[in-house]
Design goal:
mainly beta, six-stranded mixed beta barrel, three-stranded antiparallel beta sheet, 32% strand
Length: 281
């Protein structure tokens, strides 16, 4: 059976909550307690979420695989390493990770998508007519190529007898050629891919069709930070004790969120720059 998902936050049938794991949390794979300052990691500083994926029959029991994915509000594609990346040739490559790549051939809910699928843009196909995706990030430190597919994703839930809520038909990238220069942590590296949360059409936000979402980030100087959650739809709670910032979208930035920058400050003193000169950042 798959390992348990994180502790279940309150959840309703028309909303979801995922625990956010910041890099300075002892739950994070980037946390290093043996360093003089455990808040400093030699690896990248991603916030991660834990999700379940697939429907796998094991000795008469239905199981799924659990993975840690890096949360990215700047890209839309959700992708993970899949079992084909273990094929030893120039067109297939895994970066080292602790959990085995997702065994897509063993999941009865896994489905590769054809190149004619509306989310297959630009339309590229392999010899079987399956949609091929390639994603490269601006840092150049990570990229992935594979088959655009659909699968059942599972999230913690208190409203379900099984303790998880299944969201069927989520489109994601099943990566068979992947590169991550932070994968040099060897078997201790636990990040299996990216959880895209931009406004783009492939993101979980767009596919789940949540009209609103929220998350709260704990300052990095806080040791053993309290649990915080990425909340969707009815799970979004009104906040009164925190300062809130609206994420904006424009026609020019329809695949990215932007913030309205009001001013700049130096050493606690506002510079009082004309806001029209700052624009959206």
């Amino acid at each position: 059976m798959s390992p348990p998902l994180p502790p279940r936050p309150p959840s309703l049938s028309d909303g979801l909550s995922l625990e956010l794991i910041p890099p300075h949390s002892p739950k994070s794979p980037f946390y290093h307690s043996n360093l003089v300052n455990p808040l400093v990691s030699p690896y990248k500083q991603d916030v991660v979420v834990k999700i379940g994926i697939g429907t796998i029959d094991i000795e008469g029991n239905v199981a799924y695989k659990s993975y840690l994915l890096a949360l990215d509000t700047g890209s839309d594609l959700i992708w993970i390493q899949c079992e084909e990346c273990k094929i030893q040739d120039e067109n297939h490559r895994c970066y080292p990770q602790k959990e085995e790549p997702f065994p897509d051939s063993k999941s009865r809910t896994y489905q590769p998508l054809p190149s004619s699928h509306p989310l297959c843009k630009p339309s590229r196909s392999d010899e079987k007519g399956h949609c091929i995706y390639t994603v490269k990030y601006k840092t150049g430190s990570i990229n992935s190529t594979g088959v655009l597919s659909s699968e059942t994703f599972r999230f913690p839930s208190t409203s379900s007898p099984s303790g998880t809520e299944a969201v069927k038909g989520i489109v994601f990238g099943c990566g068979y050629k992947n590169y991550d220069d932070d994968g040099n942590a060897g078997d201790a590296y636990q990040i299996a891919g990216i959880f895209g949360m931009s406004p783009g059409p492939l993101s979980f936000l767009s596919q789940y069709k949540a009209k609103k979402f929220s998350y709260c980030m704990v300052p990095r100087h806080v040791k053993n930070p309290p649990p915080t959650y990425l909340r969707f739809a009815s799970e979004v709670k009104p906040l009164t004790r925190f300062q809130m910032v609206d994420l904006l979208m424009t026609k020019a930035t329809k695949n990215h969120f932007v913030l309205q920058l009001e001013d700049l400050g130096v050493n606690g003193k506002r510079l009082r720059i004309d806001r029209r000169r700052l624009g959206n950042q």
